[in-house]
């Protein structure tokens, strides 16, 4: 989707996203407009904080989010980023309705559309097209997480950074070194060295 669509009604953008997989009929579109709610966040605002139950799945209309865990030394570890037209939630907390071990924070002023667990289950039961749509969304997330785990096991820091640069060119432009380094599992100082080595090889 063209990012110029940000100027349109956010619900139109969401419906267009669904239509890319399984086009919605008029009644299904009505349900989207009824059940999804808009939320505006300032930079450093939270969609979810550790210890809370994840009550919503969020579709990003504008802005950028990070989902992260904090270890016993109070160090943040980024697990996922989400920008325009991507979904973000702690899926385990959302479906199990248990306190989350993760936080989701806005890195930029942001706008999302959200649906509750109860309303999403209603869509699954009454309109099976949404079940198929969200199955694809969740499968893609699983594939991305699996690929990331494999990279952390067998790839060097430089290889992981080059893959991040290839797969997320928009994030490279929008995120500070500290956030990218946290995602890659290295320090920002080491990331700077990696970047310098890449430049030398060119």
Automatic annotation (TrEMBL):
Pfam families: cNMP_binding. Residues 40-124 form the Cyclic nucleotide-binding domain. This is Crp/Fnr family transcriptional regulator. It comes from Chryseobacterium luquanense. The lineage of its organism: Bacteria, Pseudomonadati, Bacteroidota, Flavobacteriia, Flavobacteriales.
């Amino acid at each position: 989707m063209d990012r110029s669509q940000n100027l349109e009604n956010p619900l139109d953008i969401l419906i267009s996203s669904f239509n890319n997989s399984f086009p919605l009929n008029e009644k299904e579109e009505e349900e989207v407009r009824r059940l999804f709610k808009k939320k505006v966040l300032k930079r450093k605002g939270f969609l979810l904080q550790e210890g809370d139950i994840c009550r919503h799945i969020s579709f990003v209309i504008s802005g950028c989010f990070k989902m992260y865990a904090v270890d016993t030394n109070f160090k943040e570890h980024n697990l996922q980023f989400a920008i325009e037209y991507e979904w973000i939630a702690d899926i385990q907390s959302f479906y199990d309705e248990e306190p989350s071990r993760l936080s989701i924070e806005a890195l930029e002023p942001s706008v999302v559309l959200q649906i509750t667990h109860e309303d999403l289950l209603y869509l699954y039961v009454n309109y099976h097209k949404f079940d198929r749509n969200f199955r694809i969304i969740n499968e893609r997330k699983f594939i991305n997480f699996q690929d990331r785990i494999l990279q952390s096991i067998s790839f060097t820091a430089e290889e992981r950074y080059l893959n991040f640069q290839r797969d997320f060119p928009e994030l490279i432009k929008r995120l500070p070194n500290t956030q990218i380094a946290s995602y890659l599992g290295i320090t920002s100082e080491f990331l700077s060295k990696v970047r310098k080595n890449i430049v030398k090889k060119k």
